[in-house]
Amino acid sequence: MQSTLIFQHPDIAACTLPDLPGLTRNTHTARAAVAEGFALQPSEQAQLRSQHIDHAVLPDMAFSELGLIVSDMDSTLITIECIDEIAAGAGLKDQVAEITERSMRGELDFEQSLRQRVGLLKGLDEKFLQDVYDHVLQLSPGAEYLLEECKKHQVKFMLVSGGFTFFTERLQKRLGLDYQYANVLETADGKLTGRLLGRIIDARAKADLLIQHRTLLDLEKHQVLAMGDGANDIPMLEEAGIGIAYRAKPKAQEHADASIHFHGLEAVRGWFR
């Protein structure tokens, strides 16, 4: 499959781009066919960053050739880390957020860090979860557009999260997502027990669920795209045909095929014809 160098910016016509043969522009993207292994010079990359242009070398594909997008939830499909916002209700946001950040950077084992954070929430009233969903949770810019494009082109969408089913189930119903998987918080008498139920959705589980649904849908590897922002997403980014790091930690960017630094999730659609 031919490779394409793709540039993205809301007003690409006004941007200064490298001088490449066959470069074409439309409203938000510019494209040029390139040889396998092509890379821009550091000075060219710096020039693009200074103009807030996202760029990547990817297979020359139509969006409709995809069959499945697998997405992380926290700080990817939505703008927040849910567990940090839940912890705010217990006056523990800073303490929990510090553990979250270290886990996202890959400095802590995910399952241990998750259980540690959930343990700190013991005794918290369930209403704090609903408050977070109703008043704090926001979709990332471009999320609704990307989901509309998925429905338009019959691309399945799976939300797979190291967060909690309380949020993924509500988002699935609200947005019409095809699949959702996350961790289950145990509750008793309307309060969190500080424990989790069932299988932990960690990095390996995310990748396994991608493989499972790729097989279920009879898709080739190149027809599956994964997107995430942290170390916990790396195995699924690598297992996908195309891995997208969205406003991600450096470690996740190193394992992705493309990174979105400056734009919203509409840029996922923009990587394709």
From TrEMBL:
Its EC number is 3.1.3.3. Pfam families: HAD. One of its GO terms (molecular function) is L-phosphoserine phosphatase activity. GO terms for biological process: L-serine biosynthetic process. It is an enzyme of class 3 (hydrolase). The keyword Hydrolase applies. Its cofactor is Mg(2+). Belongs to the HAD-like hydrolase superfamily. SerB family. PANTHER family: PHOSPHOSERINE PHOSPHATASE. This is Phosphoserine phosphatase. It comes from Neisseria weaveri. The gene is serB.
